[in-house]
Design goal:
Pdz3 Domain; alpha+beta; 430 residues; 25% helix
């Protein structure tokens, strides 16, 4: 009997699309001749041998193996995937916040490549790409059965080069081609300003390596401006690095507070706590919507569980799974879902998201078009929530774009903060 060999490798653990880093160990058992799954593996090698020998055109063994691995991982859940060496390099670039590309966030809906949101002031945004658009072709290549990493690879590239997207939008009879010139996409993840009544406003667009430091700078500037409260806007923030989410949360909570914990299939638990000094202590409201995902949900969930902020908006995306990224031989990588997130009170985020304390929906006005809301529960093969998976399945819509004057969520947050001190100063009933 052939002995099993145990191979120990170092891991990079990322949360979300390319997210947050800590190093661990992973044991991989090689399959013995008499081991579990051998019969299935023999079938695979037989099929590959037949294809190599009899297929009408010559094919490379590596292409067959890569294709088989992609198919296997695509059958698991929407976030597990195989990355070619090129895709793996691009994933590592994501966390830097600067790359050559178009500037759109994409996902799979009904097995179709779908735009989640264009990033403001990017080539895709300026070309008129909208949330909810279906990407039918990329440079005349069909996106049918194309995974997210491959799609990202095809849309990224050197600045001043172009790529053509064939787009279908709800209400259109036919697809329309958008030829877009790539540019350096520099995603500024933190924007801030002072609103009326000395209310501070901070918008986080992603959780990158520099987000926590940039947020600290913004909060110090707001403190210097004598703001008395804060609106933290996490709407349409798809997430990012786990350590960034923890550091962001730590700027609003005391040291040593549990931010989130993860749990594997076997029940192994990892906890993550705040560290450092609190930067901002006045009252705050956190804005969330269906586009607030993963790291955004971690921050909102922690601030809600610790009664640090009022959460306002609509139900969040519900992406509560942990992806482990494992470097493979030849420069490729494996992204595998290995655990789930839980808020400090032990609530699973997966497939249900964070429920706001105050629900405020945006309505389309003045002929503004709407798009269908997409959440984790709508993705093919999504994981279940073992605590409560009775998620409402009604169809929701939201405006494609809303001007600040029509932003009722922000207006409601401002109104609440304006009256905060009034209610706080009211004498208690005796």
């Amino acid at each position: 009997m052939v002995k099993k060999r145990i191979v120990v490798i170092w891991l990079l653990i990322f949360i979300v699309a390319s997210t947050g880093i800590f190093i661990g160990r992973w044991s991989v058992n090689s399959v013995s001749a008499e081991g579990e799954g051998y019969e299935e593996l023999r079938s695979f090698t037989e099929v590959m041998s037949m294809v190599k020998k009899y297929y009408v055109e010559e094919v490379k063994t590596k292409d067959l193996v890569y294709g088989a691995i992609k198919g296997m991982l695509n059958s698991l859940d929407p976030h597990s995937s195989f990355m070619t060496p090129e895709s793996y390099k691009e994933m590592q670039v994501d966390t830097k916040g600067e790359f050559g590309g178009l500037g759109i966030q994409i996902g799979l809906k009904d097995n179709m490549l779908t735009v989640i949101a264009p990033i403001e002031d990017t080539p895709a945004f300026k070309a008129g790409i909208k949330a909810g658009d279906k990407i039918i072709k990329i440079d005349n290549e069909s996106t049918k059965d194309m995974n997210l990493q491959d799609a990202v690879s095809k849309m990224r590239g050197a600045p001043k080069t172009s790529v053509t997207l064939s787009i279908f939008r709800e209400g259109w009879k036919d697809t329309k081609d958008f030829t877009i010139v790539r540019d350096i996409i520099k995603i500024k993840s933190v924007k801030s300003k002072v609103l009326e009544n000395n209310i501070g406003y901070v918008k986080l667009s992603q959780f990158q390596e520099q987000t926590a430091d940039d947020l600290a700078d913004a909060l110090r500037q707001l403190n210097a401006s004598k703001v008395t409260s804060l609106v933290l806007d996490l709407r349409n923030d798809p997430g990012g690095l786990l350590n960034s989410a923890i550091d962001v949360t730590g700027q609003f909570l005391p040291k040593g507070k549990l931010v989130v914990y993860t749990k594997t299939r076997t029940g192994e638990k990892s906890e993550f706590y705040t560290s450092g000094e609190t930067v901002f202590t006045p009252p705050m409201i956190v804005l969330v919507n269906q586009g607030s995902a993963s790291a955004s949900e971690i921050v909102a969930g922690a601030l809600k569980d610790w009664n640090r902020a009022v959460i306002l908006g609509t139900q969040t995306f519900g992406k509560g799974s942990v992806q482990t990224v494992i470097p493979l031989s030849g420069g490729a990588g494996l992204r595998l879902t290995t655990a789930k997130y839980y808020t400090p009170k032990g609530i699973s985020i997966q497939n249900t998201g964070i429920t706001p304390d105050i629900v405020v929906k945006l309505a389309a006005k003045n002929g503004v078009k709407e798009h269908r809301v997409i959440r984790e529960k709508d993705l093919e093969g999504h994981l279940k929530n073992e605590q409560n998976d009775t998620v409402a399945d009604e169809e929701e819509t939201a405006p494609l774009e809303v001007e600040e004057k029509d932003d009722v969520q922000l207006q409601r947050a401002v109104d609440i903060l304006k009256t905060w001190d009034v209610f706080k100063s009211l004498p208690k009933a005796s």
